Amino acid sequence: MPLTPTTIIEETTDAVSTAVEFAVVQKMLPATLSATNLTAAETVAVMFSVDGGTTFEALAQDGADLELTATSNVFSIQSPMMLGVTKSATASASGVFIMTTNPDK
User: Fold this and answer.
1) For position 92, what pLDDT does the model report?
2) CB 86 within 8 A of CB 8
3) Smallest Cα–Cα separation from 95: which of 58, 48, 57, 42?
4) 41 lies in which domain range?
């Protein structure tokens, strides 16, 4: 199955927040969330919504809020959900992406 990348946040130095419903994840296919070019204290916070995107809560893993960082910039998604991501301002252009497999090809 070929991999299909989708841009969630275009590479920019600006702080950006967005919410995305991952349709492919709803089909129970695994997906990978990643961020590029993060350095030092720059982060991408990962949140989830249980009410269709009206409100978001921090997504926790092992008791800590999940953040993509310079040293941990990939997160595997294994179940259907609506995620929100918030990218901090960055020194270099940084983007957020999701990679999925395409079962139709």
Assistant:
1) 95
2) no
3) 42
4) 3-101
pTM for the structure as a whole: 0.82
Strands 74-77 and 31-35: antiparallel
Low pLDDT (below 50) residues in the chain: 23-24
- Confidence (pLDDT) at 87: 95
> What DSSP element (H or E) covers 26?
helix 23-26
* pLDDT score recorded for residue 24: 44
Give me the residue label for tokens 């296919």.
29
What is the number of domains present in the chain?
1
CB 20 within 8 A of CB 83: yes
Cα–Cα–Cα angle for 56, 81, 33, rounded to 5 degrees? 90
CATH of the domain at 51: 2.60.120
Give the whole-angstrom CA distance, residue 104 versus residue 88: 35
Q: What pLDDT, on the 0 to 100 scale, is given for residue 23?
A: 46
Q: How far is CA 104 from the centre of its chain?
A: 23
Helix (H) or strand (E) holding 25: helix 23-26
